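Reviewers of the previous submission asked for a worked example of the structure-prediction workflow described in the proposal, so we include one complete record here. The input consisted solely of the amino acid sequence. No template or homolog information was supplied to the procedure at any stage.
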Amino acid sequence: MNKVNHIIEKVKENQRININEGLVLFRQADFLTLASLANRKRFFYHPKRIVTYVVDRNINYTNICASGCRFCAFFEPPNKEYGQGQGQAKDQRRGYIISKEELSDKIKETLELGGTQILLQGGMHPDLDIDYYVDLLTYIKKNFDIHIHGFSPPEIDFIAKKSSLSIAETISIMEKAGLASIPGGGAEILCDDIRQKVSPNKCSSLEWLEVMRQAHLMGMRSSATMMFGHLEKDVHIFEHMDKLRKLQDETHGFTAFIPWTFQPDNTKISVKKKTSVEYLRVLAMSRIFLDNFDNIQASWVTQGDKIAQTALFFGANDMGSTMIEENVVASAGVDFMLPKEELTRLIATAGFEPKQRDCYYNLL
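From that input alone, the workflow returned the following structure tokens.
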């Protein structure tokens, strides 16, 4: 039996594969074999033909960011702050910190549309310390009954350093103020040789993982992501997933894994955009390799509706968010939008049963 067939048999028997085996499978197995293996694994974890989604909104509290990541088309450097609000035209974009009035309007609209959570993220603003975030969270919790899924590890790491607090202290303070779970953003590729090239001012891979470890140890759940298709090689993709898998073995705190492709337009990294086939191969491998993750999410935001639908046969069991609002990927020239009715129609026409969920994957 050749090496690929041996690895395929291991996967079919639900045995764990290592990085080298993952690479062999990824490079040598044909497209539909990967689809079949990932689909088989998906139904092992989720025997019912249910595909979940969440109704929420991305709220970016500021676009001012000291990180200066080469892949980001959304941020404004700190010296370009002119005021508050997101309402300005795209050609006159400027630095902002959201006003409470605008924040309030966005949350009200989210609740009116049946939303159950907000994804609260922003830039690494050099003038904001822990007090700003506590005030923001307290204001939301005082006025609205909504789940706050917020502040990716680079933001938490930045806030902790700015406020001379430990990671654990920072998360604890934010949790008391109303933070309920942490999104997996800012992971990009968890290999520091790549991070140094694409986001040199962001936290290291070890620091990213430590934020998640501390959150999980407090009983807080989080998602995990991977942005690929920029300067990484195949091996980095598997090193990234291996680090996540090891932490999940330790804490069991990750709810889901969400891989997506880098969108090069309007950014400082000039590469050819990954194809849908390349996206689906990585998605399938994530389902196969991350054997301790319950949920794998399709990325319709970067792939569009048809490929997201196809992803349901490549290991994905979740369609993510209806995303009432999204600014970061849109800044890179990608503007797929899917209202709830369209998202549920896509799931149903693919032969699955759409079910709305909360952040913890409880069906609503």
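DSSP finds 15 helices and twelve strands in the chain. We consider this example representative of the routine output the project will generate in years two and three.
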